[in-house]
Amino acid sequence: xxxxxxxxxxxxxxxxxxxxxxxxxxxxxxxxxxxxxxxxxxxxxxxxxxxxxxxxxxxxxxxxxxxxxxxxxxxxxxxxxxxxxxxxxxxxxxxxxxxxxxxxxxxxxxxxxxxxxxxxxxxxxxxxxxxxxxxxxxxxxxxxxxxxxxxxxxxxxxxxxxxxxxxxxxxxxxxxxxxxxxxxxxxxxxxxxxxxxxxxxxxxxxxxxxxxxxxxxxxxxxxxxxxxxxxxxxxxxxxxxxxxxxxxxxxxxxxxxxxxxxxxxxxxxxxxxxxxxxxxxxxxxxxxxxxxxxxxxxxxxxxxxxxxxxxxxxxxxxxxxxxxxxxxxxxxxxxxxxxxxxxxxxxxxxxxxxxxxxxxxxxxxxxxxxxxxxxxxxxx
Length: 380
Prior knowledge:
- It is a single chain.
- Helix 7 packs across helix 8.
- This protein is mainly alpha-helical.
- The protein has a two-stranded antiparallel ribbon.
- Helices cover 72% and strands 1% of the residues.
- It contains 16 helices and two strands.
- The longest helix is centred in the N-terminal third of the chain and has 27 residues.
């Protein structure tokens, strides 16, 4: 009996250094978001090339614009997950509020002649009011009915934009932003770094607002609504009001993203009003990991990067030289994106953000099996 208990004691003692190292590693990585933010902030000054990921040095204007779009959609997906992953609301009309921020800001600059700051404030206000009004109507129904109502509103807005009433939307061509109304620091290829920092600031705002909201008492009610809305009603709370708060907050973040998108791309385009735009946000969230802290951001960044880089790959000479049976599907960027999405869903259930947890679980299970085998090998 003594020989059996001593090795177990030694095993437990041997586990303490491992636990200590794990705790030290956890403390050391506590500040990684701040370090990552510092790295992202300094990227415009970097001349480091990333072959295969980017063309040329990181700090080149073309790469900075691509990175700015990645950060922008990372923040936009984070805000959308406030509905999908945190409250359990599947909206197909989130593009409407993004487009409201873009089109209202641009139209006010063009028609009223106001500067960018004042126009952006009105564009943000339009996103708040529109999300409050349409959310109040859409949330009267639940489940698939809610999704269909949001889709109907978004489709109506998309048709309205393309019909170009009064010539204010530009129809299918959209309208370019007036360079004389934009700040000089946001106009010109030499100021691409400022646009990048603006997109980075938007991502930080989206992350901070969403995390603050999720950790608030209202956020805990959102979690309860997602799990069992009827139980929340039994507790004496009204889910409608809490869902409306989530809807308006997500719509406001989307409108703010649309305002950032305007100087970044140089105008307002009808593509941002379509349901396909919202479906792209849905793919981003699922790809990164719905309901996680960093997953939607990671999904938005990866999807946007892949959307641009796979388009370059589809038109490259390497694909053009392949047999037609392979060349035809590979020359379609949407096919490549779809194949990538399906592969991630099957290989990484739960999204990219849950990969570290899955690896830790696998490592713990392997360590447990090894410990069990050592126990069995000990003499009784």
